[in-house]
TrEMBL record:
Protein name as it appears in the record: NAD-dependent epimerase/dehydratase family protein
The species this protein was found in: Streptomyces salyersiae
PANTHER family on file: NAD(P)-BINDING DOMAIN-CONTAINING PROTEIN-RELATED, PROTEIN YEEZ
Origin: domain of life: Bacteria
Residue intervals of the NAD-dependent epimerase/dehydratase domain: 13-217
InterPro entries for this protein: Epimerase_deHydtase, NAD(P)-bd_dom_sf, NAD(P)-dependent_oxidoreduct
Length: 319
C-alpha cells in the first residue's frame, strides 16, 4: 500500500536532509511543504517554504496543518541536543497524535553505542553509554511506544554519517571536499584504516520518501540504504583520484578544533569520538530487500558531492 495521490507531505527541518527529502518528494510527484524557523533559503522548485517553530505542540500543529505525512528532519547544534531534542519530540509527536498524520523520523546510529566493530543491523542491541546516545535511545523508545499503543503512526529511518550535496557539518563534508578541490589540508579523524559506513544524503532522502509512501513499514526502525562500508583511507584515495591529486590529510587522533569544527562543537562531539576509533559498519540489507532500493555506489556519491562543492565554492568566491 502506498500513500494516496494528492496527499500533502510536510518536511520539518530545512538542513541538508530535510531539503533533500523535500526535493525527492517533489520528484515523486507529491505536494510538498518545507518548514523551518525562517521559512526562507534557496528556492526549490515545487516546494512551498513556510516558517514554523516546532518547539511547542501549538507550533508543531500549525506547521503540520493539512499534512498526511510528516518527516521529522529537525536537528540542533550538538551542544544543545540533549536539552532541546526531547522537547521537539514531545511537540511533534503530540501534533501528529492529534491530527492522525503519519510520522517519518530521521534517526542516527547513536543508540547502538560502541559496537567494537560488530555489524549494525536493526536487531543490534541498544547499548549507548553517552549522553547523546542515551537521549536518542529514549526518544526512539518513545516513538515506538506511541506507535505500539496506537497513539500515532510512526516509522524511524536510521542513517550513518552523511555525505553528499549540501552536507557541510559531517566528517565527510566541509572539512574534506573544499580542501580536496583546492589542495588544502583534509581532516582525517581517528583511525582511517577502519571500515566506516557513510550514507549518501540522496539515498537518505530516497529512503525516507519510500517510508513515507509505504505505511506497511510503520512501527519499527529501518536502516536507510547505505553503500557497503569502506575504510576512510580508501574513500580518500578514491576522492584523490577524482580530483587528480592525493589528498593532504591531517590526522586528528583526539577531539580538537579543526576547519569548520570549532571548540564548542568538538567538545560536544568528544563523547562520540569512538565512532572513529572502532569500525562503524551499518547493514541496510533489510530495507533493500523489502523495498527494492539499492544504495548509490560510493564513487558516484563522491562525484556528485564534488560537483556540488565546485558550485558552492564558486558561488562563495563571487560574494
Amino acid at each position: 500500500m502506498t500513500a494516496t495521490s494528492g496527499a500533502l507531505h510536510t518536511v520539518l527541518g530545512a538542513g541538508p536532509a530535510g531539503t533533500s527529502v523535500a526535493l525527492e518528494l517533489v520528484r515523486r510527484g507529491h505536494a510538498v511543504r518545507l518548514i523551518d524557523r525562517a521559512g526562507s533559503g534557496e528556492p526549490l522548485d515545487g516546494v512551498e517554504r513556510l516558517a514554523g517553530d516546532v518547539g511547542t505542540v501549538d507550533g508543531a500543529l500549525a506547521a503540520i496543518e493539512g499534512a498526511d505525512v510528516v518527516y521529522h528532519c529537525v536537528n540542533v547544534a550538538y551542544h544543545l541536543q540533549t536539552d532541546v531534542m526531547p522537547g521537539i519530540q514531545e511537540a511533534v509527536l503530540g501534533a501528529v497524535a492529534r491530527t492522525g498524520a503519519r510520522l517519518v523520523v530521521l534517526d542516527t546510529l547513536y543508540p547502538y553505542g560502541e559496537t567494537r566493530g560488530e555489524v549494525m543491523t536493526e536487531d543490534t542491541p541498544w547499548r549507548a553509554a553517552t549522553a547523546k546516545g542515551k537521549m536518542r535511545a529514549a526518544l526512539d523508545e518513545n516513538y515506538l511506544a506511541a506507535h505500539k499503543e496506537d497513539r500515532a503512526k510512526v516509522v524511524l529511518g536510521r542513517s550513518a554519517d552523511f555525505v553528499g550535496p549540501r552536507v557541510l557539518n559531517s566528517t565527510l563534508g566541509g572539512a574534506v571536499f573544499p580542501a580536496a578541490l583546492t589542495g588544502g589540508e583534509v581532516l582525517a579523524l581517528g583511525d582511517i584504516d577502519l571500515e566506516h559506513s557513510y550514507s549518501s544524503i540522496l539515498d537518505v532522502a530516497r529512503g525516507l520518501a519510500v517510508l513515507g509512501e509505504n505505511p506497511s513499514g510503520d512501527g519499527r526502525v529501518w536502516h536507510l540504504p547505505t553503500a557497503p562500508a569502506r575504510t576512510t583511507r580508501e574513500i580518500f584515495t578514491a576522492l584523490g583520484d577524482l580530483v587528480g591529486h592525493p589528498l593532504r590529510t591531517v590526522m586528528v587522533d583526539e577531539p580538537r578544533p579543526f576547519g569548520p569544527f570549532d571548540e564548542t562543537f568538538m567538545n560536544s562531539y568528544a563523547e562520540l569520538f569512538y565512532q572513529h576509533t572502532e569500525p562503524q559498519i551499518m547493514d541496510s540489507s533489510a530495507f533493500q530487500r523489502t523495498f527494492g532500493v539499492a544504495p548509490t555506489p560510493i564513487e558516484t556519491t563522491l562525484s556528485q558531492t564534488l560537483e556540488w562543492y565546485r558550485g558552492f565554492l564558486a558561488a562563495r568566491a563571487k560574494d
